[in-house]
């Protein structure tokens, strides 16, 4: 996918992205040109010079339909919610999602008979997104269109949109200031600063760029893995160091360490008959041959649970990661049992915990269990005291430990 946009004094960029990317996230400071970019791509800026090749799944789409949803919902006030949706359906393309699927996925069933004036900000945003989806766009542009939603609802709607991009000939370009959301749901990210493009690439690479070129407090990394069906855990996580396999304890602090298996082979059947990777609310995830547990967040009614083999991202903030210099990942003497063997690749001192140089950001290369696989990056923020007491240094082999994550 390629596009070039030039709008005097507002935005100028030229980028080439992976043609397989379905969700493209955009971030940057206020006033950088993000909204101008979306307006230009939607054809709303007459003076903009725009060249674009969307690389849509269906080659016969000569003039793709583009839908743009603003932060402030542009709904027709003289119609009810149902009336707004019906109007979009009148002009819908053949590839539009079904009415039932959209109202479930956007969680607006209870709002259908409400007047627009009675909607809250978050309700209005969900109705506006639903209306755009029912029109069947090939490209959906979201300009901070989920900013009024609470985090749980926002994740469910984003998961639904992600699912639709897999099912329909549709791409989504969305603007957000929430880097964790962007990292979790975007295939690629654009970072826009000073009316131009600062960086474009895969989400984890964009985060690496941000973490190394800004002083943001909430640094985090993304682990890429895949869901593994519980019955396959014996192969992926054979016990080591004589530690017997066991199921996680019934408390919120427990994850799973590399090397811990599961005694029972149980799974969940999804609505289409395929096997889900869920196990009693836990999700089993393989990352570079190491097995982790995550807590499966509740999805909306229209979202299919993750199935065996599905790609998945785990977002981990630097403050959640502890460094253990004892390199036995199978230790069972602590409740923080998600564990990954790592090598320290860099130590950056900062002053984010108080005065200058009172803390450090440690970059960790996760060691693949099998040779030939590329390592992934984790971040840990530690105090200067811990840095000194543990004698942490570049090239040192350690274990990164963190509690169970929610995905």
Automatic annotation (TrEMBL):
Residues 5-219 form the ABC transporter domain. Residues 333-407 form the Mop domain. One of its GO terms (molecular function) is ATP hydrolysis activity. One of its GO terms (biological process) is molybdate ion transport. InterPro entries: AAA+_ATPase, ABC_transporter-like_ATP-bd, Mo/tungstate-bd_C_term_dom, Molybdenum_import_ModC, Mop_domain, P-loop_NTPase, Transp-assoc_OB_typ1. Coiled coil: none annotated. Keywords: ATP-binding, Cell membrane, Membrane, Molybdenum, Nucleotide-binding, Translocase, Transport. It comes from Alteromonas profundi. SMART domains: AAA. The keyword Translocase applies. The keyword Protease does not apply. Pfam families: ABC_tran, TOBE. This is ATP-binding cassette domain-containing protein.
